[in-house]
Amino acid sequence: MTLQIKHYVAGLLGISGIALGTLVPGGPIETRSFVHINLLTLGMFNTFLTTLVLGSLLLIYFVLQSKPWAMLTAAGIGVSYLGVYGLDLAKIFPVSPDAMPPALLAIEVVGTILSFPLIALSIQALQAYKQRTFATIPFPYPNNPHRLQLPKIILAISLGIAALTIITFATSSAMGL
Prior knowledge:
With about 180 residues, the protein is mainly α. It has one domain (about 1-135, about 145-175). It has helices at about 1-20, 40-65, 70-90, 100-130, 150-175. The relative contact order is 0.20.
């Protein structure tokens, strides 16, 4: 049963990350204007959202590896999704003079609903690990531990560039620039 839980957590992280990722300002779904929000505030918010999306997608690997910290992080990410969607649906932040498009509303409602099982299953998986019923998948280590360093550095730089590009595009689109 615990093997299924981690797969559900991984699936919910993937669905949630992709769903939020489709809501980039300037895209086909998020068409509202946020020109009245301070550029720094909007940039910080878009940085948080981008980190949430990329973090969710990267965390899937570690959830499937049955890492306890990944389950705890997944629960925190679930709370973050709940907060982001809840604030927008309650019209607390970010507030726009434009009406919320129906597709945006639908994705936010579904995202809010999905955050509850993400939180609950992540906690359940963490508890299962503490009871040592978690099956761990061994990760083969190469003879030379430095052998994988270059791909990790390239991946980190690529993710940083992608994140910066997304944040810049989202912030400039939301500001109408």
